[in-house]
User: Which sequence fits this backbone?
């Protein structure tokens, strides 16, 4: 071990990053307990004690996993990367914004959690009106969103300062990607902020009698789809920027990586109707237009797939690998920092294909609101994204704490990844299959008065529960690994940042013309939404009063 | 910006397949008429559903030879599919049924497993879907959108004889 090493992150920045990462894993543990319990209840193997509701657990699981775990981890990871690549430390203002964001999100998040535990907000993480939760639930959500905006402003501030002090230079790839990620988040969350602050808060407090349901759903899904890209972009940052360094190679193309991020920014927002294909109130033409826009993300996805495997192959050939697939052999399979994210990449192939099925306009009728959809996002966010975030954790915590990943924890990490995959194969595999047979998502144990169709779904629900239990064991192992990382021996761990194989001049500067890209995003959003939303605001629409049905 | 020749080929094939696919679903939706349940068929005050036609007379009504309209009201946690004296929907095999459904309270779902009938019921809007039942059987109709504490019990049936 080298003595007197220099820490890769300023301890003050490390504290901010660590607060986010540890809170993320705390949420993951709570959400995992809820998820495991749900799977055994739905499998008909267990009945919840003490008046705990299935839907209460489901609300907690969704919010803790999809909102808290992801958002905290992402903000922690992005702050670590911008500190490392843009100036070596966070600016005081950035750090303050980061902590202010953390405080607001945590305060709001705890209020939301309290309302769920008190059974005053069993409305699931989509909180569809006119189900009406306690006002505190919506206030809490608003604080979470506003907090995340402050965290985003911190990243923009750091980036702007770097550009000012490095005139004419190309920004670091990590910094650029962090800006795109938070820009996507800020633009997307405007929708849910309007829904919560303008529609739901006044209605739940009692200032307004009724709520425009179609408008609230449209605003939610204006946010709800880009939310999944908000999980995916940081995952792509790891795949594009971190993984090449871990395997000892180079980034395939800096320019194409940036171009794919810009395309993802453009085509992930004006597409929310593909979550609303089976509902009234939107014309088939506008649904189809948004379906076409949805499918445009296939282009950056294909670019990403090409780039990643090109990196692997180029690197393998430089190391002397021969034959069509010889480069596979020289990849560091025994390094969890590579293995976990790589398994995430593989899972993304069927996951992405399933996503194409979901968005296929009228064909969505086959899978809409069935367990197929649940199986889909357990492959995307709970496998591709989660395994990548786990892979990041194995070097990020050592970087912050000035410790090293030991062989033992590395091995436990590999076991954790394999367990996770096996659990997911059972759970997501059965969800996909039984979903095609028609079993609905978000539904507690039922045999529908012993209807034959529903009885035949049962074996799959039991397989889901087996998967859920295996996943929970894997999740506990992940928490053990996090604790082990916090207590690992002292030493120097480098922040693995890949370098581009091409010179800086190869990246065209128009990719950083933010004014152009933001204008294009706004134009696309206005095009995709103006007419349908005007229609929803028309004079013949009826509002709905609120109901507490749980 | 340099793009490798193989990447150009890869993208060209991918993008071409994408547009063929979009063309296929577009033609099937707009030329062949297999559209998702859409539109404001008509809007309705969700608190007065039972007073407004056709929902003042829920149930299955014959509108032609082997053609029926099923007027259904959904509520937490069930469906009204007919008057008290004939609450169960029955049609002969080979019938085409036009479902006209709305909600009196929260958002519900309307799914018949084994068919392509799957739509959202949003208070204030009327949802419509058509299906031809070729085979005999007791078809399960279930709510596939979480609607509250007894959501899993929300179901009805249509009997095809």
Assistant:
């Amino acid at each position: 071990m080298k003595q007197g090493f220099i820490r890769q992150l300023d301890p003050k920045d490390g504290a901010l990053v660590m607060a986010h990462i540890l809170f993320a894993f705390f949420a993951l543990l709570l959400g995992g307990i809820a998820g495991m319990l749900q799977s055994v209840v739905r499998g008909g193997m267990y009945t919840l004690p003490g008046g705990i509701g299935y839907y209460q657990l489901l609300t907690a699981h969704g919010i803790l996993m999809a909102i808290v775990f992801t958002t905290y981890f992402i903000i922690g990871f992005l702050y670590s990367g911008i500190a490392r690549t843009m100036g070596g430390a966070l600016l005081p203002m950035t750090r303050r914004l980061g902590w202010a964001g953390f405080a607001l999100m945590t305060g709001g998040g705890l209020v939301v959690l309290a309302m769920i535990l008190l059974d005053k907000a069993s409305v699931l993480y989509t909180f569809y009106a006119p189900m009406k939760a306690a006002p505190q639930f919506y206030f809490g959500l608003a604080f979470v969103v506003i907090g995340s905006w402050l965290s985003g402003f911190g990243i923009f501030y750091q980036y702007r300062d770097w550009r000012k002090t490095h005139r004419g230079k190309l920004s670091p790839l990590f910094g650029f990607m962090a800006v795109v990620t938070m820009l996507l988040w800020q633009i997307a969350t405007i929708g849910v902020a309007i829904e919560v602050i303008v529609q739901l808060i006044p209605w739940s407090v009692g200032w307004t009698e009724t709520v425009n349901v179609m408008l609230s759903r449209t605003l939610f899904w204006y946010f709800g789809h880009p939310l999944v890209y908000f999980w995916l972009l940081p995952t792509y940052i790891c795949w594009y920027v971190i993984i090449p360094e871990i395997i000892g190679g180079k980034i395939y193309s800096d320019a194409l990586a940036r171009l794919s991020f810009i395309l993802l920014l453009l085509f992930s927002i004006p597409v929310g109707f593909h979550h609303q294909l089976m509902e009234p109130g939107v014309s088939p033409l506008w649904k189809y237009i948004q379906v076409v826009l949805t499918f445009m993300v296939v282009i950056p996805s294909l670019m990403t797939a090409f780039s990643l495997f090109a990196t692997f192959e180029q690197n393998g050939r430089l190391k002397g690998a021969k034959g069509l697939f010889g480069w596979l052999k020289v990849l560091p399979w025994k390094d969890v920092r590579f293995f976990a994210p790589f398994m995430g990449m593989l899972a993304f192939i069927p996951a992405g294909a399933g996503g194409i099925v979901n968005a296929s306009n009228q064909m969505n009728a086959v899978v809409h609101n069935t367990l197929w959809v649940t199986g889909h996002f357990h492959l995307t966010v709970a496998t591709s994204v989660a395994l990548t975030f786990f892979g990041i954790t194995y070097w990020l915590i050592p970087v912050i704490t000035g410790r090293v990943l030991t062989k033992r924890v590395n091995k436990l990490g590999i076991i954790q990844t394999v367990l996770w995959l096996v659990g997911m194969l059972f759970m997501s595999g059965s969800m996909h299959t039984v979903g095609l047979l028609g079993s609905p998502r978000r539904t507690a144990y039922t045999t529908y008065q012993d209807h034959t169709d529903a009885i035949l779904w049962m074996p799959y629900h039991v397989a889901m529960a087996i998967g859920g239990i295996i996943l929970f064991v894997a999740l506990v192992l992940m928490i053990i690994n996090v604790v082990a990382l916090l207590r690992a021996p002292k030493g120097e761990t480098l922040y693995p940042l890949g370098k581009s194989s091409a010179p800086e001049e190869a990246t065209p500067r128009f990719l950083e013309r933010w004014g152009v890209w933001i204008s294009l995003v706004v134009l696309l959003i206005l095009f995709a939404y103006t007419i349908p939303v005007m229609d929803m605001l028309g004079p013949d629409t009826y509002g709905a009063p609120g109901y507490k049905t749980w | 910006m340099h793009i490798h020749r193989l990447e150009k080929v890869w993208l060209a094939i991918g993008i071409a397949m994408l547009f063929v696919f979009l063309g296929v679903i577009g033609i099937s939706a707009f030329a062949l008429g297999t559209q998702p349940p859409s539109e404001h068929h008509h809007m309705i005050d969700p608190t007065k559903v039972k007073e407004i036609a056709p929902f003042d007379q829920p149930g299955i009504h014959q509108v032609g030879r082997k053609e029926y309209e099923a007027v259904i009201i959904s509520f937490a946690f069930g469906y009204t599919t007919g008057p008290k004296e004939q609450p169960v929907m029955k049609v002969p095999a080979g019938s085409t049924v036009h479902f006209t459904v709305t909600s009196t309270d929260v958002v519900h779902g309307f799914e018949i497993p084994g068919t392509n009938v799957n739509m959202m019921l949003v208070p204030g809007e009327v949802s419509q879907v058509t299906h031809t039942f070729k085979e005999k059987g007791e078809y399960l109709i279930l709510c596939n959108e979480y609607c509250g504490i007894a959501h899993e019990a929300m179901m009805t049936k249509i009997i095809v004889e």
Chain A has a mean pLDDT of 95.
